Amino acid sequence: MAKPFFRLQKFLRRTQFLLFFLTAAYLMTGSLLLLQRARVALPQGPRAPGPLQTLPVAAVALGVGLLDSRALHDPRVSPELLLGVDMLQSPLTRPQPGPRWLRSRSSELRQLRRRWFHHFMSDSQGPPALGPEAARPAIHSRGTYIGCFSDDGHERTLKGAVFYDLRKMTVSHCQDACAERSYVYAGLEAGAECYCGNRLPAMSVGLEECNHECKGEKGSVCGAVDRLSVYRVDELQPGSRKRRTATYRGCFRLPENITHAFPSSLIQANVTVETCSGFCSQKEFPLAILRGWECYCAYPTPQFNLRDAMDSSVCGQDPEAQRLAEHCEVYQTPVQDTRCTDRRFLPNKSKVFVALSSFPGAGNTWARHLIEHATGFYTGSYYFDGTLYNKGFKGEKDHWRSRRTICVKTHESGRREIEMFDSAILLIRNPYRSLVAEFNRKCAGHLGYAADRNWKSKEWPDFVNSYASWWSSHVLDWLKYGKRLLVVHYEELRRSLVPTLREMVAFLNVSVSEERLLCVENNKEGSFRRRGRRSHDPEPFTPEMKDLINGYIQTVDQALRDHNWTGLPREYVPR
């Protein structure tokens, strides 16, 4: 009896060991598969800190629009070319649009979350920094390499235009962007950031301190953490977009104290608009003022706010007569108003979690642009959009629950998603305009227009039937579950920008000066305004679609009044 029992005990011990071995092998195999799917690479040795690890710390100037370019991949660089002048021949190209089929809103939101996680995992390890012997400018540059400059002060070294490109940043890409906007200097930082400006500090730092490789140009140096590789830009590259020129703002009455209102001036015979604009651009003034043979440079101020334009014929006199009159012609220069371009993350985590909520296509990105430049703090996003990040919205890369941003963009609705926030700015836009804007974005990106085939296909009516109800439920849910709300109508923000923006900033508990609000008004368009003529009939809605949408408009209008808010503007319903 003891012998069979011993054999059974031995068999069970072997089986136990076998099961343990199989379980361990199964777990190891599953872990390897997960690592492979998440694209996590194990480091082979010590790495220098990548530039992306430091991105949330840097303060950033105003983002402006620029299309991506195809990078030049020429790693051969010569140390003798540190201060040389060379030619670049990389034309700008337009990015290819993404998929163009209609998705449901729930699957689209899930896809955005997955895309954010994918980008976070794939970019978590930056490229190794270049050694001191590799710190040299690209050989394909049109302009003089000035040197390496510190950029770790309270204000940026180059305060003009800024954009990022986490994958394709090159020296030529940055130079073309700055040259197009009439800036003299182009600076590259942390391998993926481009800054422009017309002024540099007197002292530079050692060349070896700029040792990060450009994201899209191996062997080329693109600054480092808080360090700028600066080039003097001479001219645009072949195939690039033309330089921007001065834009006529109107005829205005001169302020009482010209010397105080206009800090810089140029007086010479036969002065032209181009001469005056170039002079003011060099000094980084956004306004060029002509009065006869006199050229003045200025910022918009409470004394000269450009709101009371006069008939242009008043300024259409000969230069001598205009000089004696009390009127002047005002032009917008290609450079930006730099008084509101410095932005940063909140120094301490916010105690109040604020949402910037809207239906897609209601102007949320534009509202973020205004809020960032009015408050000086970045806005966050519930989603990750690499296109917006590259345009200067640095909060896109920050986790939406970090509380380091002044507010968080969201299109979500539903009780659980709404009650996560302590308060919210609810941005509402005419559903007819919102639906058209969102359909354009889904089919052709942030700045494009849907093609005629999209409007004539079954895609458009399916889109209206699905999204019109979402426009209504989005507002109703936020009115019902929102803890503390500020309702803002997009049309009112366009029509009366400074008063409405002042109310939004006060809701965010931030104090701003009148000069900063005027700066925002002067830079109000940002990078995401669709330009040009629409490629479709401006009235794509059928009578059945109008009946459906008008019913939702009446429902939302009544709900706003029931919650003691002003109802929807009458212009929402087509007459």
Automatic annotation (TrEMBL):
One GO term describing the cellular component: Golgi membrane
UniProt family annotation: Belongs to the WSCD family.
Domain WSC span(s) in chain numbering: 142-234, 245-340
PROSITE patterns: WSC
Protein's recorded name: WSC domain containing 1
UniProt keyword Cytoplasm present: no
Record keywords: Repeat
Coiled coil: none
Pfam families listed in its UniProt record: Sulfotransfer_1, WSC
GO molecular function: sulfotransferase activity
